[in-house]
Write a structure and sequence with these properties.
This protein is of the alpha/beta class and 178 residues long. It contains three helices and ten strands. Helix content is 22%, strand content 37%. Helix 1 packs across helix 2. Bound molecules: inosinic acid and magnesium ion. The site of magnesium ion has 3 residues, from loops.
Length: 178
């Protein structure tokens, strides 16, 4: 499949995504017990993950979204900006970040900084995808859906220069080695 100038091939099916997201929701629910969390989705990439995760989360919970940005094209940049903040006061609450993908960790570092100031009772990170080869930070990631190699992916909320978010499955950039 061609998106802009690049060729992508199927990588993770819609069924497998649903199954894994359901497992993550059950795991978080089991760990939290009767604590009512605020889930915080990181826009735009996490919108499908957040939607499917919350549908499979069995207990009472709240939801907010924040928007940050570090990507331009297929390159991660050092500068992560906060574009939209959250209205809810998370002080004293358990906040679970729902992130689409942790790559270099720049975005995650910004998230930690934002929430350190807010005196949350507990901050946990759940990411659907994690690229360990690319991760450069010493920051805790509590829940990982899929560990993946350092290759660009799109679909299921993730884009390449604005395209591909609507795809219900994940595609991987086709390179000379695959
Ligand atoms: P980081 O700040 O380098 O960890 O990048 C995190 C953000 O970059 C994610 O929330 C995504 O929006 C974007 N990103 C990182 N890797 C990919 C990818 O393979 N495909 C699409 N977007 C990505
Ligand atoms: Mg993102």
């Amino acid at each position: 499949m061609r998106i802009h100038d690049k060729i992508f091939q199927p990588y993770i099916s819609a069924d497998l995504l649903q199954k894994r997201v359901g497992e993550l929701a059950q795991k978080v629910a089991a760990d939290l017990g009767d604590i009512r969390p605020i889930f915080v989705g990181i826009l735009n990439g996490s919108f499908m993950f957040v939607s499917d995760f919350l549908k499979q989360y069995p207990y009472a919970c709240e939801l907010s979204f924040i928007k940050l940005s570090s990507y331009s094209g297929i390159e991660s940049t050092e500068h992560v900006r906060s574009l939209i903040g959250m209205d809810e006061n998370p002080e004293g609450r358990t906040v679970i970040i729902l992130e689409d993908i942790v790559d270099t960790g720049n975005t995650l570092e910004t998230i930690y900084h934002i929430f350190e100031e807010k005196k949350v009772a507990d901050l946990k990170i759940a990411t659907l995808f994690y690229k360990p080869e690319s991760f450069k930070k010493n920051l805790k990631i509590d829940y990982v859906g899929f560990e993946i190699p350092n290759k660009f992916i799109l679909g299921y909320g993730l884009d390449y220069d604005g395209l591909g978010r609507n795809l219900p499955e994940i595609y991987q950039l086709k390179t000379d080695t695959n």
